[in-house]
Each structure stands twice: as structure tokens, then as C-alpha cells.
Specification:
heterodimer, A: TIM Barrel, 8-stranded mixed sheet, 13 helices, 29% helix, B: 324 residues, Rossmann fold, 4-stranded parallel sheet, globular
Chain lengths: 435, 324
């Protein structure tokens, strides 16, 4: 299949391209950008006039609910949701059921992904056996089975000696370690940010220190072991400051943040809105501003959905009894680009934060439109208008606090390996540009 | 924030929290409670205001006094009332809580009086009941206990006429106290001059000043010249979470003794939401002494709850038609 994407504004931060260019696709690969290759006769021309053409999105952390939690969601529905959201590659943390701490678990998940999945799925292996924080997992075996990094998921390692050795061992194998930083004791008492809203609602608070203590501890051990480390889902401004300081000392540390922490704060919990129940919790408006600034400065260079699909019962109950988590695959792109509308980020920077930056952290050959690369591409319409309607999500999880928000930048096409996997129905288009 | 406990015309529909209510409404409750209060001296203590109504007390957490006064209040309003103690462990998940609720609603309840150990539970239940059903919060987690706060305001008003001139001190475990949160809100709405909270840092919420109170860790300073001293019950499990070393040390610093009470105004009143731990948060001689109004609070609980229940069920037009 030969395709030509014509006349779009191509933004490819990896190659410093922001120009009106044609893209030529052949045999699943990008054949040319700009100049028409000789004797190229496309089977289809996609007119991308007034639209933006960028690399397919790379989501550095998304939970899909597979394999055993099939009632909530499945690889099939969640990867379709990803594709609809312009995401062509996503990375799954090891805290699935069963836990990804053996080559067999990697194979099981990999098989299912190959059969049912419509996006590229990458797997992070467990750092310790059973994520229990006591014995090292067989990281070499996990690496050979295809894991692209190691992590203890949402189970923080309490024993500092184990963490130090896990980091040293991962460094030996040249594996990146992915960290959800949390002090288990300070986190255990609460369900929302400790501050004025927890005080008003009488809900247990999780202090900012639950995150900063863990990050400070981990940075010390990263400095010692020289492991390449990535912090997931930073929620507080002080955490970002710690990371910035470590980066300035030359430590191999990167970080990501979720769109909900960039757009919402503790106040969005209102009167016990369980859809805003998420861990780490939504923090103060000052934290939100500092996180936005950290993305602007590049301290946090990646934005991730931290997708966690839940069925409706999981959000039905008194706040503390509900399950934390937000369904985010289908809002990653519009919420990231809303930061551009709000003058918080440049368009190039926003796109880099969901394409090339996470791809580089994960060590993937993705997130760019270099000639010869796989044609994973997202086309979106900056002039479109749509309302966020979670009940229409393809994801099995309709748990989004962004219902009713108005977005631009709706995805109109998603290409995976040169194939069109998503094409918005022309009758959905407010400004129809398809050929 | 929208106030879903009021009808469109601003009348009481549910009574979930003091937050967001107007001073006029709180005053109405107290005025109406004054009327009901005069009933208790009569031979026949009942009025027929809620005849034919069914009120269900759903207590997911143990309580004797609150449940009893709610029952008595309902009976004196001539409602049919039943109390259910529901084991929380069997209904700790939202699903089964809703199932329980829907089953009881199918028995044509007009009002649920709810106590639950999770903050926000009353709000959650109010969101899921049928439109004609009223929900009264009889205490949810650490969030709110609005009827207790109103009976406390009523008691204060009986003794101290003018709220803006008052200085009120709340002593003890404010962090875990739904009573304190509701009291602080009610005092603010009624325009009380100054509200202080007194306790060790472990028992006061983070960012307490956002509640509009002055924070004291030193009880001697905090009690200086106050008009009202409210002591809070100290839960003994607080020793477990490393919040306090021992009840003895707590009493030493924050127990209300005569020497400390003497720092308040000479006519200061002493309150406690009960049940009292004598010798832990308050000396026996003070609990039983001339400045204590603790038993009055219990008595006032009936009239205040009658006022709130009759207002909540009277606010619905179709029911007004029926009683007319």
C-alpha cells in the first residue's frame, strides 16, 4: 500500500521539522518527507490541509487491565482506545495480574498483545519477585524475554538495601528503572492530598512529603548506582525541584507527569467526586503551576496518560472506598495540546512530550518521522471542536473527570506501520478534510 | 460548589453538612427548636407534624445517644421510625451499600438518618436516593455531624445571646472530629467573633487556618478570656497511630481542669459532645460542675433534631399538600 499524506503541517520534533510537507509511505515505512520519490503512484492520498501531522504518540505508562481482569477491560478495547487517541506505542507496568516477574508472564502478555492488540505494546518487568520488595527478579531473563525496563510498579520498595541492590543489578544489565515514588507509611493513611481540601472534607491526607521523601531517597541511590532512572507520575512541585537539582548534577534521571496533574487540583474533588480519586493525589494549585513550569523547562519532559480503566462499580461508594484511577488514553492528546492553547507550552514541545521524549526514555525507535522509520503517524485537526464524552470512549473504562470539557485537536487519522487503523467518520467531521 | 441539600427555593431538603448554609436557615432551625423545646414540659409531648411518615435510622457505626435522640425526635413528631444497626464489614463496598439503601427505599421510607464511618457517605447516599427521600447526616467519618453542631449552637444561644461578641475554644482531637468541623462552620456562619482550636499538632488538621480558626498548642494561652470551651472526646485508639504517648500526658497538657478553666471568662460555659472520658479530656468536677452544660446539650438534641427533621420533610410541596 502506497500512501501520500499531502499538504499537512508536519511537526517532527526529533528532526526539528515544522513545515508544510507531504509524507510518502510505502510498505509500512516512511519513504520520503517533502520531495516526491520518483515514480511514486499512491494508492490513496490523504489530504491533510489545515491539519497537523506528527509521529504516533508514545505513552510511557498505561494499565490495560489484562490478563486476568477481563471484566474491566481488555487489550483489544484498550489498544483500540489508544489508536483512537493517536497513540501507536504504549508501555505496560509490571503490576498486572499475574505480575510480570517471569519470562512466562512476559510471553503470556506478549501473545495476547500480538493477537488482540492494535498498537505496539512494550512491557516493563518487575524489579523484585512478586513486587514484594525482597528478592530480585530475574532481570536478565526478563530482558531477554523482551522487557524494556524494570519497575516495582505501585508497590514502593521499603527496604533501602534491597532497592540499592536492585538498582545496582539493573545498572549492570543496562536496564532503565521506572519508579513510582511513594513513602508507604505516609501514603497509607490517606486518599487525597493533605491540605485544605482534606481538612474540609475530613478525608485522610497524603502529604507532599510522601513523594519527596521517596524521591530524595531514590536519588541518593541512583547517584550511587548510576542506574538510568525514570520517575513516573510526579505530583508535586517540590518533587520536580529535587529532580531538577539531580539532573543539574548530571544524574541520568528523567520524569513524566499526567495530564490530570497538569490540569486539575485538589479542588476538583469538590464534594467527594470519586472520578478525581487518583494516586498520587491531585495536589494544590501551586503544585499544578509548578508542574506546568517543570514541563516547560524540560525537567519533566514526558506526559503520560497513566491510563487506569475501571468499571463503574469501582467508582461507586463513599470516596475513600472507591478505587483510584483515571481512564486517560483518549484524552492524552487533547489535554496535552490544551496546554498549548493555554500558552503553557509550545506546540513543538507538547508534541515532543508525547512522542520522541518518551520513546528515547524507553529506548524505542519510535516517536519520529525519519525516512526509513516505521510509519506510525497521527494526524489531528487543530480547528476541530468536540466535547469530552466518556460514555463514548472505546476504552472499557469510562472513569474520566474531564467529562464535559471542550477540546480542540481531535485525531482524524492514526497510522500504524503504514496502515490506517483509525479514521474519523467523515460525518463526524466539523471541517471535513478527508479525500 | 452547588448546595444539593437545599431545594430550588432554598428550603432544606437534606441535612448533610453545615457548609454552605445561610445564617437565616441556622437561625430558623434554632427558633423552631425553641418551640419544640417547650413541648417537653407538657403532659403530651407529641405533635402530629410527620404523621404517616416513615423514618429509618441507618447506623453503619455504633451510637447510643445520637440514635436514641433521633428516635425520640421522630416519635415526638408522630412519624413511624425504625432503627437499623448495619454491620459495616458486610457493606463496606459501595455496591452493597447502595443495595441496602435501595431495599429500604422499596419499603417507602421518607427519610434516612444515616451514620457511617466514611467521610462523604451521607452525601453519596443523598445522591442515590429517590427524589422524594430526605437524608439527614448523623455523622460521616471525620467530615460532618451537622445536627450535633446545631444543638451545640442552640445551647450556646441559650446562654450567650449575641454570637459576634463570643470567643469559642475547641479543645482536643480536631483532626478526627466531624463534630468540630461542623461546629467551626456553624460558628463562622453565625458570625462568632473568634474561634480557636487547641491541641497538639498531631491532632490538628493540616492547613487548619483555612477553616478560619486560630490555632493554639498551649492550652493556657488558648483558653484566655474565652466564653465557651468545647472539649472533644479523645478516642483511645489514637495512642496506636503514634499520635499521642499516653492518656495521662494528654490530660496533663490538654485535660480541662479547674486551674485551666479559671483562665477563661468567669461565666464561660463548658461543653462536650459526649460520651465523656473523665480524667482524660475533662476533670469530673468540671463535667459535673456549675459551668458545665453537657446534659443540656443532650436534652436540646431532641428539639433541634425535631426542628431539622420537620423542616426537611416539610420542604416538599406534595407533602405540604397532604398535610394541609
Amino acid at each position: 500500500m502506497k500512501l501520500k499524506i499531502s499538504n499537512g503541517r508536519v511537526i517532527d520534533p526529533a528532526n526539528h521539522i515544522d513545515d508544510q510537507l507531504d509524507i510518502f509511505i510505502d510498505n509500512g515505512l516512511i519513504l520520503a518527507v517533502g520531495k516526491t520519490p520518483e515514480a511514486f503512484i499512491p494508492d490513496r492520498i490523504i489530504d491533510a490541509t489545515d491539519q497537523i501531522v506528527c509521529p504516533g504518540l508514545v505513552d510511557i505508562s498505561a494499565r490495560l487491565g489484562e490478563p486476568s481482569q477481563q471484566h474491566a477491560s481488555s487489550i483489544s478495547s484498550e489498544t483500540q482506545a489508544a489508536i483512537k487517541g493517536g497513540i501507536t506505542s504504549l508501555c505496560i507496568p509490571p503490576d498486572t495480574d499475574p505480575i510480570i516477574d517471569s519470562p512466562a508472564a512476559v510471553e503470556l502478555l506478549g501473545d495476547r498483545a500480538n493477537k488482540a492488540g492494535s498498537a505496539n505494546i512494550y512491557i516493563i518487568g518487575a524489579l523484585t519477585q512478586g513486587l514484594e520488595g525482597e528478592l530480585l527478579s530475574e532481570m536478565l531473563a526478563l530482558k531477554k524475554a523482551g522487557c524494556i525496563g524494570v519497575s516495582n510498579g505501585l508497590n514502593p520498595i521499603r527496604n533501602t538495601l534491597v532497592l540499592r541492590r536492585a538498582m545496582e543489578y539493573a545498572a549492570t544489565l543496562d536496564l532503565t528503572i521506572f519508579i513510582n515514588a511513594a513513602d508507604p507509611w505516609l501514603q497509607s493513611q490517606g486518599c487525597i492530598h493533605e491540605g485544605m481540601v482534606s481538612t474540609r472534607l475530613g478525608l485522610g491526607g497524603i502529604p507532599e512529603a510522601a513523594e519527596t521523601i521517596a524521591i530524595a531517597r531514590d536519588i541518593s541511590l541512583i547517584e550511587h548506582s548510576r542506574v538510568t532512572a525514570h520517575f513516573h507520575n510526579i505530583s508535586s512541585g517540590k518533587s520536580a525541584a529535587l529532580i531538577k537539582e539531580a539532573q543539574e548534577r548530571g544524574l541520568p534521571i528523567t520524569a513524566d507527569v499526567s495530564p490530570h496533574h497538569l490540569h486539575l487540583s485538589e479542588h476538583d474533588i469538590g464534594n467527594y467526586d470519586s472520578l478525581s480519586h487518583v494516586i498520587p493525589p491531585l495536589r494544590s494549585t501551586r503544585d499544578r503551576e509548578q508542574l506546568q513550569q517543570s514541563v516547560r523547562e524540560g525537567v519533566i519532559n514526558t506526559i503520560s496518560s497513566h491510563h487506569h480503566p475501571l468499571d463503574s462499580d469501582a467508582k461507586l461508594g463513599p470516596f475513600a472506598d472507591t478505587t483510584p484511577g483515571i481512564s486517560g488514553l483518549e484524552t492524552l492528546l487533547p489535554l496535552t495540546l490544551k496546554l498549548v492553547d493555554d500558552d503553557e507550552l509550545s506546540l513543538q514541545q507538547a508534541i515532543a512530550s508525547i512522542t520522541i521524549n518518551p520513546a528515547q526514555i524507553l529506548g524505542l525507535d519510535a516517536g519520529h518521522l525519519t525516512v526509513g522509520a516505521k510509519a506510525d503517524i497521527c494526524i489531528f485537526n487543530p480547528e476541530s471542536h468536540c466535547e469530552c464524552l466518556p460514555e463514548k470512549f472505546l476504552s472499557a473504562g469510562k472513569n474520566s473527570p474531564f467529562a464535559g470539557w471542550h477540546f480542540h485537536n481531535e485525531v482524524s487519522f492514526t497510522f500504524l506501520n503504514g496502515q490506517i487503523l483509525y479514521e474519523r467518520e467523515p460525518n463526524d467531521l466539523l471541517s471535513s478534510q478527508t479525500s | 460548589m452547588t448546595n444539593n441539600q437545599l431545594t430550588e427555593s432554598g428550603k432544606l431538603k437534606h441535612f448533610l453538612t453545615i457548609e454552605g448554609l445561610k445564617r437565616d436557615l441556622l437561625t430558623d432551625i434554632m427558633d423552631r427548636a425553641e418551640q419544640f423545646s417547650s413541648l417537653s414540659g407538657r403532659q403530651v409531648k407529641k405533635v402530629p407534624l410527620l404523621r404517616g411518615k416513615t423514618i429509618m435510622n441507618l447506623f453503619f457505626e455504633d451510637s447510643t445517644r445520637t440514635r436514641t435522640t433521633f428516635e425520640l425526635a421522630a416519635k415526638r413528631l408522630s412519624a413511624d421510625v425504625m432503627s437499623l444497626n448495619i454491620n459495616t464489614s458486610a457493606t463496606s463496598k459501595g455496591e452493597s451499600l447502595l443495595d441496602t439503601l435501595h431495599n429500604l427505599q422499596a419499603m417507602h421510607a421518607d427519610m434516612f438518618v444515616v451514620r457511617h464511618n466514611e467521610s462523604g457517605a451521607a452525601e453519596f447516599i443523598a445522591q442515590h436516593v429517590a427524589p422524594h427521600v430526605s437524608v439527614i447526616n448523623a455523622g460521616d467519618g471525620c467530615h460532618a455531624h451537622p445536627t450535633q453542631a446545631m444543638l451545640d449552637m442552640f445551647t450556646i444561644r441559650r446562654h450567650k445571646q449575641h454570637f459576634p461578641d463570643l470567643c469559642v475554644a475547641i479543645v482536643g482531637d480536631v483532626l478526627h472530629s466531624r463534630v468540630a468541623r461542623s461546629q467551626i462552620q456553624a460558628l463562622a456562619i453565625l458570625g462568632v467573633g473568634e474561634v480557636r482550636i487547641i491541641g497538639p499538632q498531631t491532632l490538628l488538621p493540616t492547613d487548619s487556618q483555612t477553616l478560619g480558626v486560630h490555632v493554639y498548642h498551649d492550652m493556657e494561652k488558648g483558653l484566655k478570656d474565652v466564653d465557651v470551651v468545647i472539649t472533644l472526646r479523645l478516642q483511645f485508639e489514637r495512642m496506636q497511630g503514634a499520635l499521642l504517648p499516653s492518656p495521662q500526658e494528654y490530660y496533663e497538657s490538654y485535660g480541662l481542669t479547674q486551674a485551666k478553666l479559671d483562665l477563661a471568662k468567669p461565666d464561660a460555659i463548658v461543653m462536650h459532645p459526649g460520651p465523656i472520658n473523665r480524667g482524660v479530656e475533662i476533670a469530673s468536677s468540671i463535667a459535673d460542675g456549675p459551668q458545665s452544660v453537657i446534659l443540656e446539650q443532650v436534652t436540646h438534641g431532641i428539639a433541634v433534631r425535631m426542628a431539622i427533621m420537620s423542616m426537611a420533610l416539610g420542604s416538599q410541596p406534595e407533602q405540604q399538600d397532604k398535610t394541609a
